[in-house]
Amino acid sequence: MLIVPAVTATVSQEKIKKQPDDYQEGIATGRLHLPHLKQDIYSQTINYIIMIKFIKQALGIEPPVDFKKLVSEGAIILDVRTRQEYNSGHIKTSLHIPLNEITANLHKIPNKNIPVITCCASGMRSGAAQNILQANGYTVYNGGGWAQLQNKL
Fold first, then answer.
1. At residue 20, does pLDDT exceed 90?
2. Which of the two residues, 83 and 64, has the higher pLDDT score?
3. What is the gyration radius of the CA atoms in the chain, in angstroms?
4. Residue 38 C-beta-side C-alpha neighbours within 13 Å
5. Residue 11 pLDDT greater than 60, yes or no
6. CATH 3.40.250.10 occupies which residues in the chain?
7. Which CATH architecture has domain 67-152?
8. pTM listed for this prediction
9. Structural contact between residues 130 and 141, judged by C-beta atoms closer than 8 angstroms
10. Model confidence at 5, in pLDDT bands (50, 70, 90)?
11. Is 105 helix (H, G, I), strand (E, B) or coil?
12. CA 130, CA 143: separation in Å to the nearest integer?
């Protein structure tokens, strides 16, 4: 069972005193307008969405991704481990850019319309790479550990 905290908004007595007519009218009509709370509620909602996504991923509840199909349709496999780790074994068709070099090497992944599957040793660094790439407009899937990903291809 997954318990998700509800997002609630409260109004301080001080804010009510500043705009008593608006508050009373809002209560009477059922159309209480509190623009100063919109950003706080929005931020809280985004935080809860991120938290739920993280929990789903951690528990394996996310819908399964068909990595084999993505690769057959042209997805790029991006290995973000260190050079030494990559040289000790990797997926043959993978592109290698260590995590700490991704931002400086986005030009090596020029087409943002082609999905990217990130991988590393365990899934932690590939998750960080996923966040960086998504922030730069790419469609990204965290493939987790490279050896497990290879078995799914």
1. no
2. 83
3. 22
4. 5
5. no
6. 67-152
7. 3-Layer(aba) Sandwich (3.40)
8. 0.62
9. yes
10. very low
11. helix
12. 10
